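W.,

You were right to be curious about this one. When I first looked at the sequence I had no strong expectations either way, so I just let the prediction run and decided to look at it fresh. Below is the sequence, 275 residues in total, followed by the output.
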Amino acid sequence: MRFFRILLHLLQGALIGLGAVLPGISGGVLSVVFGVYKPLMELLSDPGRNYKTHLPRLSPYLLGYAIGFMGVANLLAYFLEKYPAPSVCLFVGLIAGMLPSLWREASLYGRSKGSLVSLGLSMAVIFALLISLNTASISITPNFSWYLFCGFCLALSIIAPGMSFSTLLMPLGLYTSFVDGIGHLTPDVIIPAGIGAVITFLCLPKAVNSLFDSHYSLAFHGIMGIVIAATIMTIPFESFTVSVNACLVNIFFLAAGVFTASVLDVLNSKVPRET
């Protein structure tokens, strides 16, 4: 059973890594639906106290994340060019299929009217933010400072579920050069991005973890609102109208994502959680 659990966690970590780099998808969203988010925030907020208990549990996820992230970076440009809509639809289906599990997790300590208000407000904020970013048209020349910002966005996509770093970088014209630099391990990209990510991981997780400890239901319903809004904004609606075949292909990959998520949810429920 332990070996099976490790393999499952590796797979989930790889999916989180893949989701982190795929445009429109948040690795933080997948870390939430796979039950990794809270222990990861606890580890990052106080590594000195939690590394002995949390790091062994999270190691398979972290290894899988690295495999998923680095494994897809070099191939991403090809698939984005050839099959952009089906790729995104697959991950939209994956997230949608995990929403029932996320809803159950959000009510772990009860659900109040304030929780539902938190869900609605977070949805409204993310809708407004992403719509604004989608309508912006800005071009920037990549340099050391901007790759620091890319690292910040990458870390933020884990700390703030629903915030895909590609959502922030694509309107600025930084996404392609950033992903290409990561895929080819370019020092001019890796070093500043790493610095930006480390600074972000050191500064933000403690505040997030404190919020969960004191207002779990409000925080989790807020995250769920972010997940729902970001997922809806991710759907490539225009690709469904291109042709009947394109529509059917998108529907197939959406269904495949939902089915895969359902299977993973069942497997998760059968594997005892470590304490």
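Here's what jumped out at me. The chain has a mean pLDDT of 82. And, maybe more interesting for your project: Residues 47-82 form the longest helix (36 residues).

Coffee later to discuss?

I.
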